[in-house]
Amino acid sequence: MTTATLSAIAPFNPVPLKQDAAVIGLVGLAHGTSHFSHLLLAPLFPVFMRDFGLSFSDVGLLMTLFFVISGSGQAVAGFVVDRMGARPVLFAAVTCFLLAALAASQATGYTGLLLVAMLAGLGNAPFHPADFTILNQRVSPARLGHAFSAHGLTGNLGWALAPVFLVGITALADWRVAYYAAALLYAAVLGVLFWQRDKLRTDVAVRQADAPKGAELAYLKLPVVWWCFAFFLLSTMTLAVVQNFAPSILKALHGVSVEVATFTISAYMLCGALGMLVGGFVAAYGHTHRWSSDRVVAISMSSGALLLLLCATGWLGAVGTMVALAATGFAVGVGGPSRDLMIKKATPKGATGRVYGTVYSGLDVGFAISPLVFGAFMDRGWYALTLAGAAVVLAISVVAVVGVGSRTA
Asked: What are the chain's domains?
């Protein structure tokens, strides 16, 4: 994303590029921290299983707990963001991550890890309503496509950094040292956000004295909100299949080693990040040429579904399947910025935090449901059918996109 490119997209934008870029950078930093925290425990599961005598079910419950707290808290956090503003909520969230890392460094058993999962889930809950409230209020409309692109890009980078950071420091020193280092990382991020806090201020929704009872919940009656929720739930179920089961599927179907198969997840995430970068330009171009954001998302998700279905056939062989999976990440990533613009169009004025909190809780629900559904497929040895199922779910998400578009046209 270059100054020249952005200036070319919005040559008459009255808001200086430097001002928008600062806000986008700060929110992106915070969002990367959130995704880093998704994997605060998972990369070191083998270590915890060895040191604390845990089972796969035990460590799996840690992630379930994380996403249950994050998902249920996200919808509530939207109301808090609208009432108090996004900035204090964002500071509190990063503080929760800091406490989670410190708790992890002192854990002596499973109870300590449960506390870490709860603190990290609580910290993760407010991020989408807080982030998107700041971006929608503080970034000029012509650059919102790039803002959403950077937001998704930094999230993927946070996912990519966590395993390298935690496992790398553990290999060099000790896992407790790794969590002390993570705590320092969170402290540094919190310091930067506080230092630049004036750029994160948002307006709050003032409740009218004569407003009817339950007015704040009126947005829940809008069908378009639930179509958005359904889209996030379904599309995230597909992502969860890739994250959780792709290495096992590649090993079972094509005899690929665990190490090489695991690399496919990193390739998927990096291609997804590249797709989001490209998607920012697509969204910005679409904004100036009146493209429908829901149409871009529908094309993107349909392309990803077709690629996954091709992978399920086994026709491509080991290398071809890994390349196609990475390409799926790119295809889905291109639709990311347009997806966020689509939700912005569906959001009533003054309800940004509430709507984004509710809609993005579908992401946590998808992450929680997918391992249960497709884990049953994997237990029965239905490896190709798991990929095909992920493709079908992603294709069904296109129906939800159409539902959103028909109600925001």
From this structure: 17-199 (1.20.1250.20), 220-409 (1.20.1250.20)
